[in-house]
Amino acid sequence: MEYEAYVLTVREETERFLEALGPVVPEAAVPTCEWTAADLLWHVAEVQHHWAAVVRGAHGEAVVAPERPSDPADLRTLVATAGTELATALADARPDDAAWSWHEDGGTVAWVARRQAHEALVHRVDAELTAGRAVTPPTVELAVDGVDEVLHVMLDGVPAWGTFTPDGVTVRLECSDVDAAWLLRLGRFTGTGPESGTAYDLDAAAVERIGAASVGAPDDPDAPDAPDPVEAVDPGTDPALVVRAPAWHLDLWLWGRGGPEGFEVSGPGGADLVERLRLLLADATQ
């Protein structure tokens, strides 16, 4: 996707988010997490304020969060202000400008724009569900990019100080409405955090995109071309699980905003492996 499309998505999805929550009382429960509507508003305001400052050159750990308003009207105003600040900061910046990131693959404004576009999209879904509305699908292009983004940013790999050990189990995710697919190699993440001293031994995954759809961070001249689906995977390797569904349905499911009902699921891994993957994503996206 083009950089400008991500910037527009941030602006439009924030507006839709606010519109969906307009008639919702602050105490209303958000069905996708243990938040109220007021908590959801505050989260989006705080996140967008944070990343607007980062795009303008601030170090992420130095950004001071705004005070949370107690008045619901003021909270909505804060979201509108933060959303405008973020969209404006992104529009004023260049994709290759440096920007702080918590992710090892980040470091540019382009990465921030993509991450915040999908952040806004997912929370707009939360807003619609909280309001009791039907969820409005995005374009197929944005949906397939959302699948790629959640898999590569939230799930893929381990920190530089950790070790990933494959356990031989593979899962293939396929979009039924666009030529895009991903191979997930499951395994264990082990290592000790250099700052906390905490020892980790967790379920993990390494992700490889094997479909031909154009997805990825915008305007990155070093990004590799998508490999041919036939050549990307060892033909002697049969995935333990194949999950096939429209891109938007996959995106919602990976984010815990929809179930796998209606998905085409095959392979010997069955329901247990579907649940293992869902738990992996739940931990990665919390």
UniProtKB/TrEMBL annotation:
InterPro entries: DinB/YfiT-like (IPR034660), MDMPI_metal-binding (IPR024344)
Gene Ontology CC, one term: plasma membrane
Source domain of life: Bacteria
MF (Gene Ontology): metal ion binding
Gene3D superfamilies named among the record's database cross-references: dinb family like domain
Pfam families named among the record's database cross-references: MDMPI_N
Ranges for domain Mycothiol-dependent maleylpyruvate isomerase metal-binding: 10-127
Protein name: Mycothiol-dependent maleylpyruvate isomerase metal-binding domain-containing protein
Species this protein is from: Actinotalea ferrariae CF5-4
